[in-house]
Amino acid sequence: MKTSARNFIKCKVKEIHQGIVSAEVVLELADGQQIISIVTKNSVEDLELKPGMQVNAIVKASSIMIGTTD
Amino acid sequence: MKTSARNFIKCKVKEIHQGIVSAEVVLELADGQQIISIVTKNSVEDLELKPGMQVNAIVKASSIMIGTTD
Amino acid sequence: MKTSARNFIKCKVKEIHQGIVSAEVVLELADGQQIISIVTKNSVEDLELKPGMQVNAIVKASSIMIGTTD
Amino acid sequence: MKTSARNFIKCKVKEIHQGIVSAEVVLELADGQQIISIVTKNSVEDLELKPGMQVNAIVKASSIMIGTTD
Amino acid sequence: MKTSARNFIKCKVKEIHQGIVSAEVVLELADGQQIISIVTKNSVEDLELKPGMQVNAIVKASSIMIGTTD
Amino acid sequence: MKTSARNFIKCKVKEIHQGIVSAEVVLELADGQQIISIVTKNSVEDLELKPGMQVNAIVKASSIMIGTTD
Prior knowledge:
The structure is a homohexamer.
Chain A: E1 7-18, E2 22-28, E3 34-40, H1 41-46, E4 54-59, E5 65-68
Antiparallel strand pairs in A: 1-2, 1-4, 2-3
């Protein structure tokens, strides 16, 4: 399957915090930067996400904002 | 200013494609991975974005999906 | 690839309207209901979208609102 | 009230899973396909959502991605 | 129709800038603060938006971030 | 830091409802209108949000829909 989402960022699952309907998944880029994702608890189970697993963070281009560094 | 957005990913502006109301900004991570962002044309002008500039890609945690790599 | 996006709705491409950086894609469900999607112009080209093609409309669960019918 | 949201998809409430601040609502299209929506727990109460109720899944066009079926 | 969107902010249309598929609509709150919305060009036509018209800016709660003022 | 997000709406924190991974923050505009935001529980802690605190509601332009008032 190919999708219209423009962004597939390679990272690794670092931690998973389960809630009742949502879950917070902490991802880590190769250079150590962290990415935080909120998905449904069911997604974590369906994808069998576990710390150490290689995944892609997927983001639609219209969901990405830009900030200056100063 | 601190914000509730959980994700600030360091990257560099690579290319800017201007439309009439929107603009596509191609960003590059340190390891060469690309991130595509759609912002308003006015944002590109207000932030004075130019190729080579260091910026942050900012994403709300609830806008990040996860995909398996297989 | 499996993704955390909970919604994959089967539909068919009906029309494509190209802008400069964005494109509006009109999709059609089996029962004739229409779905409108805004993606980047580059996505339309990469996926080689054409009228009549079978695709999935993919939506993250947190992007779906609910309205009453009255 | 008319809104700029381009997508109103007719469906029926199938299941509701309540969390503390969020709720997962499982919707069903006429052809049996399911749609999963995450809304606030307060929305479920205000709209008095119940299994069997006819509703619309409402989605902004820029929140819809497209995936190929192969 | 009632919707699960938690935010209906009363404002007035100030300016409309049409693109090819998207349009930028500048809204104004009672206290003079501005809100910028990107919708499809077709939405502007369907809602017959015009400067001076009273409207609601509608936002899903999960799309609102919070920033400190310092 | 300047960001591409077009909307910074001045408001005050009114109430905070903590869940396990998410939190619902009720904000109030100067004219009394309310804004509801869902952020991660960690954001509430990092920003040290408390009732009475002045903040900005930040929204990307593409997340704002428009509704007519009739």
